[in-house]
Write a structure and sequence with these properties.
about 725 residues; alpha+beta; Phosphorylase Kinase, domain 1; 3 domains; seven-stranded mixed sheet; six-stranded mixed sheet; 18 helices; 36 strands; rod-shaped; binds 2-acetamido-2-deoxy-beta-D-glucopyranose
């Protein structure tokens, strides 16, 4: 009968069922066995290639599922890709009466998609003095493995132990589809009949088997494993491709359910489908994988007392309101009421920090207020209000700049060129106002209280000064502690630099010198004249004579401390003249008049002529005042030593002589003997006369000096020096 079975198996042709989607007609269950797709019973109910099963009604009326009508199917698992089937137990028995050995060499040839599970099955041999072989084809080569079971005496047998005494087990390799059992003749004949007449061998699910000593001594095994068959686990897989390859084929790919994934078979070729985590069901049918409602499972996945919420493919746990903790893997603990002390501390710190911020704000506002107030105070102190009123009243063009405007103007000039001069009196900055108006901003260091009070009046007077040879005062800044003055910017340096630093004697012709003298004298005469507000300059020196590119001279820095010559007090307090230029009469008497300016101008004339500084050092290192040494040489008639190598022509020499004469007049020891500035201008103009062809007698009243714009003079314009006011004040009070 068994032989017949085996032959039937071998002869069985594999009939591939047409690939089809199971429908309502297909049985999903045969007896106790669930038949999920891709398995199926009947036509068109299973996936092609060995998944078709048959369902037979046994004599007892029970239904059983069979593979190829022969091998009974016990259980199908989609999740693990395994099928549990029944395998025949091979046995051999020796009956001493006839030395008859009965038994069968059993063969089972499973075709794809099935292969014996190497993990779950063990080749098991039960008996004494038994050697059985499992023979198989494996990877196109033959495989054979034997297992020996020996028994010394009955005592050596142990229940549950299958390790060579009465029972032996051996593993099988992967990818095994063919299986046959043979018993070795030798041992069979050398049987120790004291134990039992039969030996058994079978490939079975190891877990389902437990050795009992009674299997040796009695035929209990056959009673337990009815029909001489034991469960064996088959691994199965779809096709013989890997997932990667299979996925490319839209039609044959078996994992058609949403939320499914493909897994390469771990035993041989092919792949398996499985539902993604969080889903369960049949991944081989569309929509087969359904969300797992984790929350309604027997074991709540969330912590005790936590709320569970199911989501597609997942779930979430939350501690209920009023509790906190790990809702997934822990416990939800009721929230602790915040203690009164903690509340108080928190409250206090919050209010404290609020107070701090509030206080800081107040402080900042107060500071700002104070700043604005102080600026307003300065403005008032410096007479800003009165000045503004007067200016509008008189319609004068004079600006009162705010501190910001001044700062902005200074910032608009390169950092390198910002400072024009610096000295004991303060700093002179260069600034830019509007599109391209450059200005010089004078920022004095200090100003006496009395002068501050008078400041606005002085501004009023100075703003009226308007002469082409006087640096124009454009405005002032009053909302600072010490008021600042904004002047027109004169670009080409000053006379002091021209004579003593730049030393470009060739271009510095006598004509140019005369013109500078003429311009300066004209400006001073204007200041002294009753037409102007009558101002004594007070600090006439070469450094205060600024120059334009065309050598037009501009007088600058006339001290507003000497505005009112009648005010005796200020002369006592202010001695601002520069050594070497200072009127000796003033030094003796303290009387400062227009004639003091004339004296200083005389020194400037000498500087122009001789190219020497007002105070210079002789070769012997002796400090010498230009004015006094000049007067001395004049007396000795040794003037020539002093002069630049300028006067070469006879005409020039004559001119120089006349200028010398004028200088001597200006340097007279007594003020009364000195000419007025107006006289000086006239004389200088007269010197120009013979050289001036276009000059006509009708112009005599016009004290305009002539400026020859020679190409020689123009070459000076390339000079880059921009210092307009000079830091060469020599404090006489040292
Ligand atoms: C199975 O499918 C084939 C081809 O699609 C069809 O010819 C046959 O009738 C089907 N059988 C049944 C029982 O539906
Ligand atoms: C199929 O296997 C599962 C678990 O492996 C088991 O619970 C079930 O009883 C088995 N069914 C049959 C018919 O053997
Ligand atoms: C399929 O998924 C289930 C549940 O996620 C898992 O237990 C099983 O091992 C998976 N099967 C394979 C073949 O990976
Ligand atoms: C030997 O014994 C066995 C079992 O007891 C029996 O089946 C068989 O017929 C016997 N043979 C002879 C020749 O008596
Ligand atoms: C498998 O064996 C058969 C004959 O036994 C042989 O023709 C074939 O080439 C072998 N295949 C491989 C891949 O070794
Ligand atoms: C073995 O065979 C002998 C003789 O036929 C018989 O007496 C004995 O009971 C048998 N043993 C078993 C365990 O069947
Ligand atoms: C399967 O998922 C796709 C997108 O992932 C979706 O468009 C389709 O509707 C889903 N099918 C079903 C049956 O839920
Ligand atoms: C499994 O065995 C078959 C033949 O039985 C062979 O064609 C195949 O290559 C083997 N696969 C693996 C992964 O060993
Ligand atoms: C499920 O939710 C948990 C916790 O929210 C998260 O860690 C996990 O990655 C989620 N799993 C999936 C598949 O979304
Ligand atoms: C859950 O808690 C246990 C013990 O408290 C810990 O061993 C485990 O790692 C935790 N698991 C997670 C996912 O936090």
């Amino acid at each position: 009968m068994s032989l017949l079975l085996s032959q039937m198996l071998l002869l069985l042709l594999l009939l591939a069922a047409a690939s089809a989607v199971p429908d309502g007609r297909c049985l999903t269950k045969c007896g106790e066995v669930e038949i999920p797709y891709p398995f199926g019973i009947g036509d068109n109910c299973s996936l092609a290639g060995g998944f078709s099963l048959t369902c037979k009604t046994m004599e007892s009326g029970l239904k059983k599922a069979f593979y190829r009508n022969v091998v009974e199917v016990l259980n199908i698992s989609l999740a693990t890709g395994q099928v549990r089937m029944l395998n025949h137990i091979s046995s051999v028995c020796y009956y001493p009466n006839h030395s008859f050995v009965s038994g069968l060499e059993w063969t089972l040839n499973m075709a794809p998609p099935y292969r014996f599970s190497d993990r779950l099955n063990k080749f098991t041999v039960i008996g004494c003095h038994t050697l059985a072989y499992i023979v198989s084809r494996h990877d196109n080569s033959s495989y054979q493995s034997g297992c020996v079971s020996m028994c010394q005496n009955k005592k050596s047998l142990t229940d549950g132990s299958c390790s060579g005494v009465g029972c032996c087990q051996t593993s099988i390799p992967k990818n095994l589809t063919y299986y046959s059992v043979t018993f070795d003749n030798v041992i069979r004949n050398a049987g120790n009949w004291g134990f039992g007449n039969c030996s058994y061998a079978v490939l079975l699910e190891a877990e389902s088997f437990q050795f009992h000593t009674s299997y040796i001594t009695t035929n209990q095994l056959m009673q337990i494993y009815s029909d001489a068959s034991a469960p064996v686990v088959m691994d199965w897989a779809i096709g013989d491709e890997t997932c990667e390859v299979a996925k490319r084929s839209q039609t044959s790919y078996a994992c058609i359910s949403n939320n499914s994934e493909c897994i390469d078979s771990s035993n041989g070729h092919g792949y398996l489908c499985n539902c993604s985590t969080g889903y369960q069901g049949n991944s081989y049918v569309s929509n087969g994988c359904q969300d797992i409602d984790e929350c309604n499972q027997q074991s709540n996945p969330c912590s005790d007392g936590a709320d569970c919420q199911n989501m597609p493919g997942n779930y979430s746990c939350h501690c209920p309101e009023g509790t906190h903790g790990d809702a997934y893997n822990g416990t939800c603990i009721p929230n602790q009421k915040v203690s009164l002390a903690v509340k108080a501390v928190i409250g206090t710190s919050i209010s404290l920090s609020f107070l701090l911020v509030f206080g800081m704000c107040i402080c900042m506002i107060y500071q700002r207020r104070k700043l604005i107030q102080s600026r307003k105070r300065y403005f008032d102190e410096n007479g800003g209000v009165q000045l503004q009123e007067k200016m509008t009243e008189l319609g004068l063009k004079f600006s009162i700049f705010s501190k910001e405007e001044i700062e902005k103007a200074i910032k608009r000039v390169d950092k390198k060129n910002r400072i024009l001069g610096q000295g004991g009196y303060g700093i002179v900055y260069k600034g830019k106002i509007g599109d391209n108006l450059f200005v010089a901003i004078k920022k004095p260091k200090v100003l006496s209280e009395r002068k501050k009070k008078e400041f606005w009046k002085e501004m009023l007077i100075l703003s009226k000064v308007n002469h082409k040879n006087i640096v124009k005062l454009l405005g002032c800044c009053l909302d600072v502690e010490v008021p600042m003055l904004v002047y027109e910017f004169v670009p080409n340096g000053n006379l002091f630099e021209l004579i003593h630093i730049r030393i470009d004697i060739d271009n510095f012709t006598l004509a140019v010198r005369l013109n500078i003298a003429c311009d300066s004298a004209d400006a001073l005469a204007y200041l002294h004249s009753p037409d102007s507000p009558r101002i004594i300059h007070g600090d006439v020196k070469s450094a205060n004579i600024l120059l334009h590119e065309d050598f037009t001279a501009k007088i600058s820095d006339f001290g507003f401390s000497r505005l009112n010559p009648d005010d005796k007090e200020q002369f006592a307090t202010v001695v601002q003249g520069t050594c070497g230029y200072l009127d000796p009469e003033f030094v003796q008497t303290g009387k400062f008049t227009e004639k003091s300016d004339v004296y200083s101008f005389g020194v400037v004339l000498l500087e122009l002529l001789t190219g020497k500084k007002a105070i210079y050092f002789e070769q012997n290192g002796e400090e010498t005042y230009l004015a006094s040494s000049f007067i001395l040489s004049k007396k000795k008639d040794r003037l020539k030593e002093h002069l630049d190598n300028q006067g070469t022509s006879e005409e020039d020499e004559q001119l120089i002589e006349r200028i010398e004469e004028l200088a001597v007049q200006c340097l007279s020891a007594r003020g009364e003997e000195r000419p007025t500035m107006k006289d000086v201008v006239d004389q200088l103009n007269n010197m120009r006369k013979p050289k001036q062809p276009s000059w006509t007698p009708s112009n005599t009243d016009d004290i305009q000096c002539f400026h020859p714009v020679t190409s020689d003079a123009q070459t000076f314009t390339s000079s880059t020096s921009c210092i307009s006011e000079v830091a060469l004040h020599i404090e006489c009070a040292r």
